[in-house]
Structures are given as structure tokens and as C-alpha cells.
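Design job #97: recover the sequence.
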């Protein structure tokens, strides 16, 4: 960024992943790949995804409103608005909304790149098909993300969650 950077609500690119509708506030192109920021409301009792590992990016989740649950490594966290949770690269993590009302968080990640993965995932998932997991696996490999699909059922059962609409 060489000058002021303003992103208005109408300028934000958004994508949906189940019960999460995310908006890219700052894409890597605007920061020469140094970092990115996503804002995302997450629906009630929604699991973002199975435990997964980012090999390239570190991230913070900042809880703007509502409640937020997360697992980072072997640690489980339950937080409210104002909390900041660190998810370092190379450590399995996931998050969810444990409440019966929506919540909103910011995800700040560095270096940038994961926003491209999430946008593409948001395009792939609604297409469905018998080979969906193969396509997700190929995309994940391209972006250095390792998904632990076997973790989803236990997280859903333990916390009473779903993946959303």
C-alpha cells in the first residue's frame, strides 16, 4: 500500500462457506502479499470446518460480536467479543460459533494467500458432486492446507454443531 486504502461495504468481495458468509476486507494484492483480512459473520452453532493445518500462514481471529469457540492444537478456547485468538501455521485448528445467535469475527493472516483459497473453496463447495472431496483435496494441497476430515464428526457431536446451510 502506498497511500490510503479504503474498502467500502459495496466494494467488498464476499463468498459463502456453509453457515459463514465472509467478506475480504484486505486482499493480498493490496499489501504486496504481506497480509490479508477477512470479516465473517458465522451462523448459530456452525462449525467452520474440520481441524486443518495451514503450512504457510499464521492467523489471528478477533471476535467482534457474539461468542466464539476454537481448538488450536490440543487447546480449546471459548471467547466473547473483544477476544483475540492466535492460530500459528503448522498447528491443527478450527473454530465454531457455540451460541444460538450469530457472531462476527475478523481473521487477520500473514502472509496473504489464504483468502484466495477460501474464495475458491466457496466456489467449489456449492457445486457438490461425487468428486467434491477430491477437488477440495487438490485445492488444499495447492495452498498448503491439510484437512483432517475425520475430526469433523467428533467436533459436531461434542459441541452440538453443524456446517450450516
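Job complete. Output follows.
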Amino acid at each position: 500500500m502506498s497511500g490510503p486504502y479504503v474498502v467500502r461495504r459495496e466494494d467488498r468481495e464476499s463468498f459463502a462457506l456453509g453457515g459463514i458468509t465472509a467478506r475480504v476486507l484486505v486482499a493480498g494484492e493490496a499489501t504486496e502479499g504481506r497480509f490479508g483480512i477477512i470479516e465473517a459473520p458465522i451462523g448459530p452453532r456452525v462449525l467452520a470446518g474440520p481441524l486443518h493445518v495451514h503450512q504457510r500462514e499464521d492467523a489471528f481471529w478477533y471476535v467482534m460480536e457474539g461468542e466464539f469457540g476454537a481448538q488450536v492444537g490440543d487447546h480449546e478456547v471459548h471467547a466473547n467479543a473483544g477476544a483475540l485468538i492466535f492460530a500459528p501455521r503448522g498447528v491443527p485448528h478450527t473454530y465454531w460459533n457455540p451460541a444460538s445467535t450469530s457472531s462476527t469475527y475478523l481473521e487477520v493472516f500473514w502472509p496473504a494467500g489464504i483468502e484466495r483459497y477460501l474464495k475458491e473453496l466457496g466456489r467449489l463447495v456449492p457445486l457438490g458432486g461425487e468428486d467434491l472431496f477430491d477437488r477440495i483435496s487438490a485445492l488444499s494441497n495447492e495452498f498448503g492446507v491439510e484437512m483432517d476430515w475425520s475430526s469433523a464428526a467428533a467436533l459436531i457431536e461434542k459441541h452440538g454443531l453443524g456446517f450450516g446451510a
